[in-house]
Amino acid sequence: MRLRADLDRCRGAGQCVFTAPDLFDQDDAAGLVVVLDPAPGPDRQPLAARAADACPNRALTLSPD
Amino acid sequence: MEKLEVPEMPWTREDAFHPPAGLAGLRAGPPARVRLPSGQTAWLVARHADARALLSDPRLSSDETRPHYPQLIPVPPATGTLSFLRMDDPDHGRLRRLLTTEFTVRRINAMRPGIERTVAESLDAMVEKGPPADLVRDFALPIPSQVICQLLGVPYDDHEFFQDRSAKILETNAPLEEGARAMGELTDYLASLVDAKVREPGDDLLGRVAPGIAEGRLTRDELVFMAGLLLIAGHETTANMIALGTLTLLVTGEWAALCADPARVGATTEELLRHLTVVQFGLVRTLLEPVTVDGVTMEAGDGVVISLTAANRDGAHFPDPDAFDPDRAQGHHVAFGFGMHQCLGAALARLEMDVVFTALAARLPGLRLAVPVEDVPFRHDQFVYGLDALPVAW
């Protein structure tokens, strides 16, 4: 599975980092999302999906490669 | 004639720990027209899925200067500058972007040691004086006030002034002039502070944003209203979550569970946010285009009230929604809103609650109400629900 962030949609709300701190960070310049693990393994996929669902700006997608 | 048939928006709680019962009835159907205390009518959105969909829908506007924009209570017509909470893009985005780096999860988490010190000092002072104590005056209000003052660069010595004015601004029942006067006084105060930050920026949030005025990123008035929004939102919501949260833990028996297992604090905080939803009357928007929800078409120009309280008690998303249960399966509560205006300070609010409940449980495990629960004064008439006082002993 591929985890992608749309930086045009991201507003830096930080819900992804709160939900899955091992998968996401925010950059220092603008507070926007940084995907730490763009290809999460099966053990991390449920959390990645939960973080995508938590994003208030629908900036995250988890899709097959 | 038709207007007479529009029911009033459920407003008054029958039970202080639960939303008005009428919201459950509205949640059973699609969005329905309600009459607001302002006299305007608007669509009430009560379902969790609808609330999330509409709050992230670009066809909804937050621009209060639009004609017929819905207001919950009577307010004077919007004039001049408003905070970016009440703007659409691109202006909302331009102003919010000046703040996102200040509120990243990493920056906020770095504030933990300082907040722990503030909490320990407030606890020391309260324990020295009591028991009994008023947990609101001695603990719940001073902590977020000190934290936001330090972050923004507002002198905490002025806390009585701004706490009083912000409580008046958030009052739904006060005469119109009283709220307007409080707003005027707070605005004058913050304008002087902003001018001081322009002359001598200093190492705090307002000091870091102030040079943006000369660089053309924002106007002086925009920074003044930004400061007001951050100051009010930064202390009122968290203070009431701490007070109401502590009371909820005491009356449900969850206090003992938290004291026995401090690792429950994260799940407990999230359940308090969901269960209490202190932004109690919901968020207002106006439609830029027709929008259809659950088979009902709302027209361009119609007002919408999205009830966060109702959404957070939606059994379709939270089974047994009225139960207070930190062990429930995680959902996505909307206590911080949703969409582009979602609370900028969510990480700070969560951190403050985490530190506060951890320290309180460790220091005062014998905490108890000092009065019958019936005698606790709830803030039914404030936009931010909470307590005027919480007499406790230990």
UniProtKB/TrEMBL annotation, chain B:
Pfam family, one: p450
InterPro entries xrefs: Cyt_P450, Cyt_P450_B, Cyt_P450_CS, Cyt_P450_sf
Keywords: Heme, Iron, Metal-binding, Monooxygenase, Oxidoreductase
The UniProt record lists the keyword Oxidoreductase: yes
Assigned protein family: Belongs to the cytochrome P450 family.
Name of the protein: Cytochrome P450
